Amino acid sequence: MAVHIQLRGGTAAQWTSANPVLMQREMGVETDTLKVKMGDGSANWASLPYFTQGTAGLSAYQVALANGFSGTQAAWLASLVGATGATGAVGATGPTGATGATGPAGATGPQGLTGQLEQLVQLALKALKASKVLLALLEQLVQLALLAQLE
Description:
Layout lengths: L7 E3 L1 H7 L8 E4 L5 E3 L21 H7 L6 H7 L33 H38 L1
Parallel strand pairs: 1-2
Antiparallel strand pairs: 2-3
């Protein structure tokens, strides 16, 4: 659940006219000037000081110059860069990704042993049938030769 902080607000004229005492650490905003005051629990609005922005200080480069650095701002910035550190440890393996789409079908490979074996069996069966036919013919020839001898 989000936390909302809302400050008391009113125009400068409304604050001056009402001149309330803000509770300790209670903030009030002049909605027309955007000036802010913080209560202490006892002083009225008119007695409280406005928040003010402090004076601008020296830049880090100016502080470096004041402490003995000599060179351009670019050189000073470059001097702030250190050597590359050692490579860190390898992290844990992440979760397995989703399965990708099926790729296209590959080319048909060469005929394997099973196909060749089948062909050999078919040839052997044909040869066996042919030899049975030859055997039957041979038997008929033998019978004819026997009949011819008997006559």
